[in-house]
């Protein structure tokens, strides 16, 4: 069950409407780094959360807060579009400078589809994609996904902050940047509470390492074969980060055989040449 308040979480002001910036703000709403992703990600993780109730409550709190961020950004998009006429035909006929701006650099669907409002799309007009939402049922894996999401979101917010000279927009974005800072630390704090690097890893820590191939579990494999690889560092020597093994640096080499697939199923309608083994088989027979 959700409740709402008529007031925004933080003030949203626009000194001078800018339809191009409205288009850019759409990335922070419906883009892969945006607020719709983190909102739904945290909520689905909460709804599916098993274990201590505090993690479910925390995820619900933060997922609901992200709704407020969508609201703020949608308001910012609408304010940046204020002043553009809905009389599309009249504006085009009159050669409206604002219309030229919208059609020249911003999203025409802000006029055609949403009536000067935000949409559930990214800056290119691509609709939000629910497959971006990560909820594995493993709380440690989910926390790492959340750190990544907040890191990408804060990077986007920083770029948007840099892209505008509007004081109101900079102020709103500085608030969102601050909340991203908190959320990054929040998810990292959960990981620390769960046991840190050694306690959580390898994820899932419920799978017995005795059942994984110990010949390959802490080997860095270099696939650079033309010269000596420079990819050597903390990850290629010394004790593993989870404290359960030793890193090694190995050159890639095949341990399996060349795959040899059988003939196609006739019901699949492959070519005749494939049914008899194909050209490679015929050449081999000639050589033999």
Structural description of this entry:
- There is one protein chain.
- With 288 residues, the chain is mainly alpha-helical.
- It has 2 domains: 19-198, Ferritin, core subunit, four-helix bundle (Ferritin), CATH 1.20.1260; 208-254.
- It has helices at 19-30, 35-47, 53-81, 88-94, 97-105, 109-112, 139-163, 167-194, 196-200, 272-275, 278-287; strands at 219-222, 238-239, 246-251.
- It has a 3-stranded mixed β-sheet, with no helix packed on it.
- Helix 1 runs antiparallel to helix 3 and helix 3 packs antiparallel against helix 8.
- It is extended.
- Residues 85-89 have low confidence and may be disordered.
- InterPro entries: Ferritin-like, Ferritin-like_SF, Mn_catalase, Mn_catalase_dom.
- Residues 231-256 have a biased composition (Basic and acidic residues).
- Ca(2+) binds at residues 57, 61.
- Belongs to the manganese catalase family.
- Mn(2+) 2 binds at residue 66.
């Amino acid at each position: 069950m959700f409740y709402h308040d008529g007031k925004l979480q933080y003030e949203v002001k626009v000194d001078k409407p800018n339809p191009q910036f409205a288009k850019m703000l759409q990335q922070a709403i419906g883009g892969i780094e945006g607020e719709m992703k983190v909102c739904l990600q945290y909520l689905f993780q909460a709804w599916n959360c098993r274990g201590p109730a505090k993690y479910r409550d925390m995820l619900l709190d933060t997922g609901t807060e992200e709704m407020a961020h969508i609201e703020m950004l949608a308001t910012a998009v609408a304010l940046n579009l204020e002043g553009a006429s809905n009389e599309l035909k009249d504006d085009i006929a009159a050669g409206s400078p604002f219309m030229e701006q919208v059609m020249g650099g911003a999203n025409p669907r802000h006029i055609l589809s949403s009536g000067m409002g935000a949409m559930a799309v990214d800056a290119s007009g691509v609709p939000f994609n629910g497959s971006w939402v990560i909820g594995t049922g493993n709380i440690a894996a989910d926390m790492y996904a959340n750190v990544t999401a907040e890191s990408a979101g804060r990077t986007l917010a920083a770029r948007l902050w840099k892209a505008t000279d509007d004081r109101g927009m900079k102020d709103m974005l500085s608030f969102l940047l601050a909340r991203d800072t908190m959320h990054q630390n929040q998810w990292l704090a959960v990981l620390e509470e769960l046991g840190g690097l050694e306690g959580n890893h390898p994820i899932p820590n419920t799978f017995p390492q005795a059942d994984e191939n110990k010949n390959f579990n802490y080997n860095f494999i270099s696939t650079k074969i033309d010269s000596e690889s420079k990819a050597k560092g903390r990850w290629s020597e010394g004790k593993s980060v989870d404290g359960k093994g030793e890193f090694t640096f190995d050159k890639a080499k095949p341990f399996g055989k060349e795959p040899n697939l059988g003939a196609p199923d006739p019901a699949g309608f492959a070519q005749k040449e494939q049914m008899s083994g194909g050209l490679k088989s015929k050449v081999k027979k000639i050589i033999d």
